[in-house]
Design goal:
- The complex is a heterodimer of chains A (510) and B (311).
- Helices cover 47% and strands 24% of the residues of chain A.
- With 510 residues, chain A is α+β, with helices and mostly antiparallel strands.
- Chain A folds into three domains: 118 residues, Immunoglobulin-like, CATH 2.60.40; 107 residues, no CATH class; 159 residues, no CATH class.
- In chain A, strands 1, 2, 3, 4, 6, 11 and 12 form a seven-stranded antiparallel β-sheet that branches. In chain A, strands 9-8-7-5-10 form a five-stranded antiparallel β-sheet, covered by helices on one side.
- In chain A, α11 packs across α13.
- Chain B folds into two domains: 212 residues, ATP-grasp fold, B domain (D-amino Acid Aminotransferase, Chain A, domain 1, 2-Layer Sandwich); 86 residues, Dna Ligase, domain 1 (2-Layer Sandwich).
- In chain B, a hairpin with a 6-residue loop joins β9 and β10.
- The chains are: A alpha+beta (510), B alpha+beta (311).
Chain lengths: 510, 311
C-alpha cells in the first residue's frame, strides 16, 4: 500500500472508531453531547493516606448522613486488597477498611455522587431530640479559677439572650470580637486554641443541645481540601447552623454535610501518619436522565474503563491534560496551513495553559513583562560568555526572581490577580528568553517581535479554543475524540499545498 | 488583492514550504548525510577527496590547549579566514586581509592583536557560534580573493552563487550580494540582494531585496542588467559534482569565484530556502519535473550540460 493510501486509511479508521464510541455514549448511555440544559452531579472523593506499621490495621471513616436537599446517587469504595464493610454506630454510619498485614504507604478512596435537589429527604432531620440538663462533665478538666471565669462568661451571655440560638450567637460573638477579652484568651490558651471544641464544650456545659458538623461546599474542581467545621444548635424547635467566624448562617444549598455529631472523622488503628483529604468534581448531565444514569453507567462495560472511574483528583488533572491535544491542533493548523512562525514549536500551548489559570489579559501582560526583563538581563549575561547550560540555568534563576518580585510587589499593592503568576512554566520561559535573545543577535529585533508576537497570537488562539466550555465538555466526556484529532493532525501532516503566508510572500511573482 | 490565488502559484510551478519539506527534503535527503553538510570541516574533507575545488584549509584548532601555539601557527600567514566548522549564517567568521608585524588588519580595516584572535578562537571552541551551543572546531582557511567583476555589486563582503540542485542537476541559481543592511553577510532574510541568474548564460535576470524587486544595488547604485557571471559552465559542473559526495537529492551549493583559482565550493546546505524562486521570478517545479523525466544515468558533466541546455 502506498503511504498516501495508508494515511487515508488510518485517518478514516481513527475517525470511525472515535465517532462510533461517541455515538454509543450519546445514544445508549445518554451522555449529553452539548453542555446545556443540565443538572450537576457532584462527585465527592475522600482520599485516605497512611503508613502501615507491618501489622493489622483498621481504618474507620465517618459516612455522610441522609440530609435534606441532597440526593446521593452512588457510593463507591476503592479498597485495594482491604476488607470493606459499613458499620452502624450510635453516631451514624461508618466505613471500615481492615487488613491483617499493612506495609508501606497505602491509599484508600471513597467516593459518592450527589445531586442538589430541594425536595429530597424533606423529613430527614425530624429526629427525636433528647434534651440534656447541665452537663457538668463537659468542663471537668478546668481548674477552678478558669471554671469560674467560664461560668461568669456564660452567665453574662445567658442574661442577654432569649433562647439557645441567640445564646450561641452571642457566645460566638464574644469569641470573634476584636480585641478579645481576657477570659476568652485564657479559655482559648487552655484549649490549644481549638475554638470549635471549646465552644462545643461550653454549650454542652450550659445544657444546650449542640453537635459538630463537618462538611464541604459543592463547587467544581476542588482538590485536596479538608472539611469545614461548624456547630449546629437545637432550641427545642429546630436546628440552626453556626459558623465560627460569621455566627448564625443559613445552610447553603450546596453545603454537603459529611459528618454530623460523633467524635472523629477518621479513626486509624495499626497505622500511622494518616491523612484524609477531599475533592469535589462537577459533571453536568441532563436533568431527566440523572436517575437513569446511575443504573446504566454501572452496567456499561465501556464506562468501567472511562476516566470517571479514576479518583476525583486525577479526573481534575485529566481535564487539563485532555485539552493539550486541542492546543496542539491549533499549533499544527497555524504553522502548517497559515505559516505563522513561533518561537519554539509547542511553547504557545504551555503559555495557553498558563493563560487558563491567569485569564488572558493578565497572562499576556505578565508574559511580556517577564520575557522583557529576562531579555535585558540575558543581554548582560551574553557579555560574560557563559556556556549554554550555565547560561540557561542562570536565566531560570532570573525568571524565578522576577516572578517572586512581581508576586510580592503586586500583593503589597493589592493586585491579587498577579499572584497566579506561579502557573507560568518557568523552564519554558527561560528557553523562550534564551531563544529570543539568540534570535535578536542573529536576525535583529524585528524578527524577535515577529516571532514573539506570533507566539502570543498562537497562544491566545489556543487559549480561546481550550477555554471554550463546549470543547472542555467534549474532551472530558468523550476522550475518544482524541482519535479524531489524531486523524486530523495526521492528515494535515501530509498537506503539501501552499501556506496562507506564502500567498503573500510570492505575490510579487504573479 | 491581498492574497494571491493559490492556483496561480501552482500554475507557475512555485514550490511552497510544506511541499519542500514533505516531497523533497524528507524524501530525498537522508538524515544520516546531514552532518556531512552541517559540518564545514567534513564537507571540505570529502570534497577534497573527490577532487572538488574548495578554499585551502591551512589549519584546524580543536582544543583550547592548542591556542598556546597560536603565535607559531600564524607565523607565516599574511591573509586568512577563521571560521567555526558548524557555524551558520556567516556567524563567527573573522577575515584577516593583511598583517603588520604583530597586528592584523580585518576586512573593515580595523587593526587587532594576537590576543583578540586568541579570544575569538576560544569563543568558537566553546560553541558561541554553533547551533545549540555545541563545542566546535575553528578552521583557518586561505582567503578567497573575490573576482573583481563583483566589486560594484557588493558591500563589505564576498558575493556568492547559490545553486539549488535536484537529484544532482543544477536547477536554479542566484547571486547573493551583501548590503549595508545585511551587515556584510550574503544572507537574504537579513537584507542581502538576491539576483536570479539565467541557467544558459549566467546573466542576471531579476533582483530582489526582502522579496521585492530592485533594479540596482542599494549601496553602490550599480544596475544589475549588465551583470554576467564568468566561468558559468565550470560553476554548474562544480555544483553538479557535489551530488556524488553528499547523496542529498535536494541540495543548496554555495560557490565563490576566486580571482586566481576560479570557482570554489564554500559550503553546502541540506535545506535550501525558497527565495531563489523570487529572485529568478520563476517557479522551480517545472524544472524539477523535467529532471524527474530524465531517467538515464548521467555523470556530473553531463548533468551540468543537461541543465545548461534545458533551463
Amino acid at each position: 500500500m502506498s503511504s498516501r493510501l495508508q494515511i487515508a486509511f488510518l485517518a478514516f479508521l481513527l475517525t470511525a472508531i472515535g465517532f462510533s464510541i461517541v455515538w454509543y455514549k450519546v445514544e445508549v448511555l445518554n451522555i449529553p453531547l452539548f453542555p446545556h440544559e443540565k443538572r450537576s452531579i457532584y462527585t465527592i472523593g475522600a482520599e485516605i493516606k497512611f503508613q502501615g506499621k507491618n501489622k493489622s490495621a483498621l481504618i474507620s471513616m465517618a459516612l455522610p448522613p441522609v440530609q435534606k436537599g441532597i440526593t446521593v446517587l452512588t457510593k463507591d469504595a476503592t479498597s485495594a486488597k482491604f476488607g470493606f464493610t459499613q458499620a452502624q454506630t450510635k453516631n451514624g454510619e461508618r466505613a471500615e477498611w481492615s487488613k491483617r498485614k499493612v506495609k508501606g504507604e497505602k491509599q484508600l478512596f471513597y467516593s459518592i455522587d450527589v445531586v442538589i435537589d430541594k425536595y429530597a429527604n424533606l423529613d430527614a432531620e425530624k429526629d427525636v431530640i433528647i434534651t440534656v440538663d447541665n452537663d457538668e462533665e463537659a468542663l471537668h478538666d478546668f481548674t477552678s479559677p478558669i471554671l469560674d471565669a467560664a461560668k461568669t462568661l456564660l452567665r453574662d451571655v445567658y442574661e442577654h439572650s432569649s433562647d439557645a440560638h441567640s445564646f450561641t450567637a452571642l457566645l460566638i460573638q464574644e469569641f470573634t470580637k476584636e480585641p478579645s477579652s481576657q477570659t476568652v484568651k485564657m479559655l482559648l490558651s487552655q484549649n490549644n486554641d481549638d475554638k470549635l471544641h471549646l465552644l462545643y464544650r461550653l454549650l454542652r456545659y450550659q445544657g444546650i443541645t449542640v453537635r459538630k458538623i463537618r462538611g464541604l461546599y459543592l463547587e467544581h474542581g476542588r482538590n485536596n481540601r479538608s472539611l469545614v467545621s461548624m456547630l449546629e444548635v437545637h432550641n427545642g424547635n429546630s436546628w440552626q447552623l453556626f459558623d465560627l467566624e460569621k455566627g448564625k448562617i443559613p445552610k447553603a444549598d450546596n453545603f454537603f454535610i459529611w459528618q454530623r455529631g460523633g467524635p472523629s472523622l477518621l479513626d486509624v488503628v495499626g497505622a500511622r501518619d494518616s491523612k484524609i483529604t477531599f475533592s469535589v468534581n462537577e459533571k453536568r448531565i441532563h436533568a431527566e436522565k440523572i436517575a437513569k444514569q446511575a443504573k446504566v453507567l454501572e452496567e456499561a462495560a465501556l464506562m468501567d474503563f472511562s476516566l470517571f472511574t479514576l479518583p476525583v483528583s486525577q479526573q481534575n488533572s485529566f481535564k487539563h491534560i485532555l485539552l493539550i491535544p486541542i492546543g496542539a491542533l491549533v499549533v499544527v493548523i497555524l504553522r502548517i496551513l497559515v505559516g505563522v512562525r513561533t518561537s519554539g514549536t509547542f511553547m504557545p500551548i504551555l503559555i495557553a495553559l498558563a493563560f487558563m489559570q491567569t485569564s488572558l489579559l493578565i497572562g499576556l501582560i505578565m508574559f511580556i513583562l517577564i520575557v522583557g526583563f529576562g531579555l535585558i538581563i540575558r543581554s548582560y549575561l551574553s557579555h560574560l560568555n557563559l556556556l549554554l547550560v550555565a547560561r540557561i540555568s542562570a536565566v531560570i534563576i532570573v525568571v524565578i526572581t522576577i516572578m517572586s518580585a512581581m508576586s510580592i510587589l503586586s500583593y503589597k499593592l493589592g493586585l491579587d490577580e498577579i499572584l497566579s503568576i506561579t502557573f507560568f512554566p518557568m523552564i519554558i520561559l527561560a528557553w523562550t528568553i534564551e531563544r529570543m535573545s539568540i534570535l535578536w543577535e542573529e536576525e535583529g529585533a524585528k524578527e524577535v517581535f515577529i516571532q514573539g508576537g506570533s507566539s502570543l497570537f498562537v497562544a491566545s488562539v489556543a487559549y480561546f479554543a481550550m477555554s471554550n466550555t463546549l470543547v472542555g465538555h467534549l474532551t472530558f466526556n468523550f476522550p475518544e475524540l482524541l482519535l479524531v484529532i489524531l486523524a486530523l493532525i495526521i492528515l494535515i501532516g501530509t498537506y503539501s499545498g501552499y501556506r496562507l503566508s506564502e500567498l503573500i510572500r510570492f505575490k510579487s511573482m504573479v | 488583492m491581498f492574497f494571491v490565488n493559490p492556483f496561480t502559484l501552482k500554475k507557475r510551478g512555485i514550490l511552497g514550504m510544506n511541499r519542500r519539506n514533505v516531497q523533497y527534503i524528507s524524501k530525498f535527503n537522508d538524515r544520516k548525510y546531514f552532518p556531512l553538510v552541517d559540518n564545514k570541516l567534513k564537507t571540505k574533507r570529502i570534497a577534497e577527496e573527490a577532487g572538488i575545488a574548495v578554499p585551502r584549509l591551512i589549519d584546524t584548532i580543536r582544543y583550547q590547549a592548542e591556542l598556546k601555539t597560536l603565535k607559531e601557527r600564524l607565523e607565516n600567514l599574511e591573509k586568512f579566514v577563521i571560521k567555526p566548522a558548524q557555524g551558520s549564517g556567516g556567524k563567527g567568521i573573522l577575515v584577516v586581509l593583511d598583517r603588520d608585524k604583530d597586528s592584523f588588519i580585518k576586512s573593515n580595516h580595523e587593526r587587532i592583536g594576537l590576543k583578540d584572535i586568541h579570544h575569538h578562537i576560544s569563543n568558537i571552541l566553546s560553541g558561541l557560534y554553533s547551533l545549540g551551543g555545541k563545542n566546535d572546531v575553528a578552521m583557518i582557511e586561505e582567503l578567497v580573493e573575490f573576482d573583481p567583476i563583483f566589486e560594484n555589486y557588493s558591500f563589505e563582503g564576498v558575493p556568492d552563487i547559490r545553486v539549488v540542485m535536484y537529484k544532482g542537476f543544477p536547477a536554479m541559481a542566484m547571486l547573493r550580494c551583501s548590503t549595508s543592511e545585511s551587515d556584510g553577510k550574503a544572507n537574504l532574510h537579513q537584507g542581502a540582494v538576491g539576483i536570479g541568474l539565467d541557467m544558459k548564460t549566467g546573466r542576471a535576470l531579476n533582483a530582489v531585496q526582502h522579496d521585492t524587486s530592485v533594479l540596482c544595488h542599494p549601496d553602490t547604485k550599480y544596475g544589475f542588467s549588465e551583470l554576467q557571471v564568468p566561468h558559468w559552465d565550470k560553476i554548474l559542473e562544480l555544483a553538479a559534482s557535489c551530488y556524488e559526495i553528499t547523496n542529498l537529492g535536494y541540495l543548496g551549493v554555495d560557490i565563490v569565484l576566486d580571482k586566481n583559482l576560479g570557482p570554489l565550493i564554500l559550503e553546502l546546505n541540506a535545506r535550501p530556502g525558497l527565495a531563489i524562486q523570487i529572485a529568478n521570478n520563476h517557479g522551480v517545479l517545472p524544472r524539477f519535473n523535467l529532471i524527474d523525466e530524465q531517467d538515464k544515468y548521467l555523470n556530473a558533466t553531463q548533468r551540468a550540460a543537461f541543465s545548461l541546455e534545458n533551463f
